[in-house]
Amino acid sequence: MERLFRIFRLDPQKDTSPRFQEYRVTIEPIDKILDCLNRIRWQQDPSLTLRMSCAHGICGSDGMRINGVCTLACQRLAKNYPEDPIIIEPLPNFRVVKDLVVDIEPFFEKYRALKPYLIAEAPGSETERCQSPEEREVFAEAIRCILCACCTAACPVSAENGQFMGPAALLRAFRYLFDSRDEDARARMRMLDTDDAIWGCKSHGKCTEVCPKEIDVRQRLAQTKKKIYEVK
After folding, report:
1. Omega of the bond prior to 85 within 30 degrees of 0, cis?
2. CA–CA separation, 25 and 86 (whole Å)
3. What is the Cα–Cα distance from 179 to 120, expressed in whole angstroms?
4. Are the C-beta atoms of 155 and 207 separated by less than 8 Å?
């Protein structure tokens, strides 16, 4: 079967504006979008640039927008897009480095700013800091986040406010705020208690819609809001 791909192209060092380039690709029924893009690179145009690593939905590196939806190219089968062309674009809300590669360093800067690690200064036991299954279950879903940035790319608030921390960073803050072993909850809540952090979230739900790990991000952020509101 032959399919038509329409792919966003931009090399900021050479191009004054972006363009779309079309490629016809022979595919198999089991081919993922990532397989098709690699086939284009290997057989037609080695200049096409994209980011990938594991190709199994674990690393989160191949996030892009496919037919208007932010997702992972390694998780989408070409046959599930029945109409041509299949339109491939870089993740929105980020600066394009080249073609389908975007600069996600600002994404990680915001992530790091919310202290994405356990803070526990009290001496622990000789083995580990214990936690019951029930305590862990509170944030178990949030641990599935692979930091692919699809949620931030799809977020309407992130599109309007470049200072907004974004769903992924706020989700990771939720993970530690609700961890029974963490001893810095009030400091975390102070960091989150701003219009550029948790109150910037307007519960559009796009983050939940596009999450490749099917995390209910909107619900987790709502829990964060509730906890901060109750403590204030």
Report:
1. yes
2. 11
3. 11
4. yes
Quick: pLDDT tens for 144-189: 999 999 999 999 999 999 999 999 999 999 999 999 999 889 999 9
Contact 42/31 with Cβ under 8 angstroms? no
Among positive and negative, which fits the CA dihedral 188, 231, 162, 155? positive
With contact defined as beta carbons under 8 Å apart, do 160 and 152 qualify?
no
Q: Which residues contact 64 (CB under 8 A, 6 or more apart)?
A: 50, 70, 71, 72, 73, 88, 89, 90, 91, 100
Q: What is the C-alpha separation between 172 and 154, in angstroms, rounded?
A: 17
Token pair belonging to 92: 């929105």
Instruction: Give me the residues paired with residue 2 across strands.
Output: 26
Which domains, from first to last, does the chain contain?
Answer: 2-102 (3.10.20.30), 105-231 (1.10.1060.10)
Distance CA 158, CA 206 (A): 11
Residue that has been written with the tokens 């089991």 in this structure: 30
Distance, in Å, from the CA atom of 171 to the CA atom of 159, rounded to the nearest integer, reads 18
Q: Which residues of 212-231 are buried (b: 16+ CB within 10 A; e: fewer)?
A: bbebbbbebbebbbebbeee
All residue ranges of the chain with pLDDT < 50 are none
pLDDT digits (tens, 9 = 90+) for 130-139: 888 999 999 9
- Number of residues assigned to the chain: 232
Q: What angle do CA 101, 107, 110 make, to 5 degrees?
A: 165
**Residue 36 near residue 78 (C-beta atoms within 8 A):** yes
